[in-house]
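Message: I would value a second opinion on how I read folds in token form. Give me a protein, with the fold worked out from its sequence. Write it directly below this note and I will take it from there.
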Amino acid sequence: MGFYINVLKELQRKVEVLYRRKRTNHRLTKVQIRLILKELESDEDFRDRFSNNRYNQWTHFKEVVGHYCGIDEELMEQVLRELKG
């Protein structure tokens, strides 16, 4: 779960920069982050790393983030690539 918290924080930072530059209308607030984490934590399949591979977790993560704040999927993929190094 810690990895996805880091992704959300980095995503929040990037979205704020884009919002200030008027390149996006979306924002990622602390309330949205809490709601996203709460939904992810309540999903047993998401938390179970043995029965659910990383790709399925990432796909579910993108769906939940998209549901709560509508951030572009490409931006999420960019943040993932940067965090992986």
Residues 19 and 72 are 13 Å apart (CA to CA). The mean pLDDT is 92. The two ends are 19 Å apart (CA to CA). The chain has one domain: 2-84.
